[in-house]
Fold these 2 entries.
Entry 1:
Amino acid sequence: NAGVTQTPKFQVLKTGQSMTLQCAQDMNHNSMYWYRQDPGMGLRLIYYSASEGTTDKGEVPNGYNVSRLNKREFSLRLESAAPSQTSVYFCASKDEGRGDTQYFGPGTRLTVL
Amino acid sequence: AQSVTQPDIHITVSEGASLELRCNYSYGATPYLFWYVQSPGQGLQLLLKYFSGDTLVQGIKGFEAEFKRSQSSFNLRKPSVHWSDAAEYFCAVEYGNKLVFGAGTILRVKS
């Protein structure tokens, strides 16, 4: 039982390049989330998916797209990376009940030059 | 709008001393509240959560938190801090199916 896994752990991009961050969970959770963490700002929600086949914008969706590939996998895509997207990205999952715990992956540290 | 405020960006305590991290929330209904801890270079781990019942909740690693509705607070406490508690701590409130996080408090432990 690996929980929530993310790949890659580190990535350096040049401005304008694209990439996809991968996330998978093996807990059979319905809901999945993508956050970014910046110093002094806590975690901010980029996108989330309440169930397979659905996605919704969070607080900071601009410049990102997501795909809920199946119940296990939720990917985050940067189509044209910008230095403002330098951040640590976390994926999380939870079951659908109110108050259920969100479980977090180890994060991806992304630098855009 | 729902929000979470953690007034202290950094806190330094001596090993063995007591600890209290502050959290204030803004939420119209009965809140579901969480405390998470993040060790350097790691993901977030749940310490404890509150959604009903006893207003003093116990968590892992010897932490506890008290919900005070009148003060809109959910402060985290530990009676005796260990060096391994050095980390960043996040308070969060659940809104719909999402979490809204505070900015975090970095705890430093001095020996």
Note: Chain A touches chain B through 25 residues (CB under 8 Å).
Entry 2:
Amino acid sequence: NAGVTQTPKFRILKIGQSMTLQCAQDMNHNYMYWYRQDPGMGLKLIYYSVGAGITDKGEVPNGYNVSRSTTEDFPLRLELAAPSQTSVYFCASSRGTEYNSPLHFGNGTRLTVT
Amino acid sequence: AQTVTQSQPEMSVQEAETVTLSCTYDTSESDYYLFWYKQPPSRQMILVIRQEAYKQQNATENRFSVNFQKAAKSFSLKISDSQLGDAAMYFCAYRISGGGADGLTFGKGTHLIIQP
């Protein structure tokens, strides 16, 4: 059981480049999330999705885009990368929003923009 | 908006002793969920323990227990018989009940050091 899989694990981008962070889950979860974690900070929500075809902004969406064409996949797109987007990115999923539907996290992608 | 505050950036404890990590939160909701996540150097986010706000009884998972004080909006984590493997960042998190489609609100974390 793979759970939530994120690729790549590490990436270095130059300012202005674009890239897509991949996230896939094999638990048939409806809810998926993208968080970023800056040094010394907790996780902040970038975007979330409650099902295929439905996405919504979180706390820090600027500079990012997402899509959810299937239940399994929830890629995060960075357009015109900026140094402020240097962070560790986590994808997570959950079956629902109830107490017994905790978030399952991927292992994160460390992104550096120089 | 809900906020979660962890006032201890770093804590240190001797192996086999007990340590308590603090967490307070601010919400106008009456029903919600609270969580503690552990993040070891591997970066993986691991659920340690969770609590439903309407339950008075404090949650316990082996050596981990919480002290949930709803009126004070406090949710501390106690780790008994600390082990070297407990060394990690610990995050307190909040989720509204019955509508938390936008996931969890996290505190900034407490770095726990275990002294051998």
Note: The radius of gyration of chain B is 14 Å.
